Amino acid sequence: MKIAVTGKGGVGKTTFSSMLSRMFAEDGYRVVAVDADPDANLALALGFPREVYDSIVPISEMKKLVSDRTAAETGTFNKMFKLNPKVDDIPEQHCQEYNGVRLLTLGTVDSGGSGCVCPEHVLLKRLCSHLILQNKDVVVMDMEAGIEHLGRGTAQGVDAFIVVVEPGERSLQTYRKVKKLGSDIGVKQVFVVGNKIRNKDDEDFIKSNLEDGEALGFIYYNQDVINSDRSNQSPYDVSTQTKDEIKVIKDRLLQIKENKNK
Ligand SMILES: Nc1ncnc2c1ncn2[C@@H]1O[C@H](COP(=O)(O)OP(=O)(O)O)[C@@H](O)[C@H]1O
Ligand SMILES: [Mg+2]
């Protein structure tokens, strides 16, 4: 099961990704959670202790790893470097594990504008493809808004793109953009998870704005989730209600995966 979670900033991508990862892990799956947002904070949402969180070095900042694997000296963009660096051992060697979830933090690629190909970028992209295309249990990627940064092969290997939306026009706009982009690169299934829902009206509002898309489920606005962020706990450890809502979504994902394999 390979899932990429995207959506507008602040909608709850990290909250959802962390809870889904922990739930799969609790069910006994081997889970790799990928923090692919330059503004990385998935580790905290997963409940990693502060010391571990503070010690995390994103892959893109591992200068030696980047230059060893791509045979490039970092910062020298006009030099030749490998476009197919070895990455298969990186997940084992550079992830942190807590609560049964293995976390990979990718970091930022300062590419100086779109279209730039730099060693860090090549390595991260290849690492993502590797994670998606290999035959492992569960990969959950907490992404920035949009899916441009995924290559076609990677995107097609993903079982579900999940766009987290709030009951509001702005995040639905992001959903439509992702859906359009997805269909441009051959991704058929882009699903929605409604978050910060207050009532049935909110659910209906989202449902009525999905065109032919499907909402996998709804997560209600929950003070416990906010408080978990304040007290630096994993939202997974504080709310049974939210967990129940995540379970509905997880079960639907498994059902979709099963139908796809038929
Ligand atoms: N269901 C929810 N109920 C209440 N607050 C939520 C809920 N989901 C997310 N939040 C809060 O919204 C804020 C943004 O969530 P986050 O997961 O970091 O969003 P993103 O990763 O999309 O930027 C956080 O303070 C989080 O605690
Ligand atoms: Mg986030």
Kindly describe this structure.
This protein has a single domain (2-49, 98-110, 134-261), classed as Rossmann fold (3-Layer(aba) Sandwich), CATH 3.40.50.300. Helices cover 43% and strands 16% of the residues. It contains 11 helices and 8 strands. It has helices at residues 13-26, 42-45, 50-55, 63-70, 90-94, 119-133, 152-157, 169-184, 200-207, 223-230, 240-261; strands at 2-6, 31-35, 96-98, 101-105, 138-142, 160-165, 190-197, 215-220. An 8-stranded mixed beta sheet has the order 3-4-2-5-1-6-7-8, sandwiched between helices. Helix 1 crosses helix 11 (240-261) and helix 4 crosses helix 6 (119-133). The longest helix is centred in the last third of the chain and has 22 residues, at 240-261. The protein is globular. The chain starts with a strand and ends with a helix. The structure holds adenosine-5'-diphosphate and magnesium ion. The site of adenosine-5'-diphosphate has 16 residues, from helix 1, strand 7 and helix 10. It comes from Romboutsia faecis. This is AAA family ATPase. Keywords: ATP-binding, Nucleotide-binding. Pfam families: CbiA.
Summarize this structure as a short list of keywords or feature phrases.
single chain; 262 residues; alpha/beta; Rossmann fold; 8-stranded mixed β-sheet; binds magnesium ion; ATP-binding; CooC; nucleotide-binding
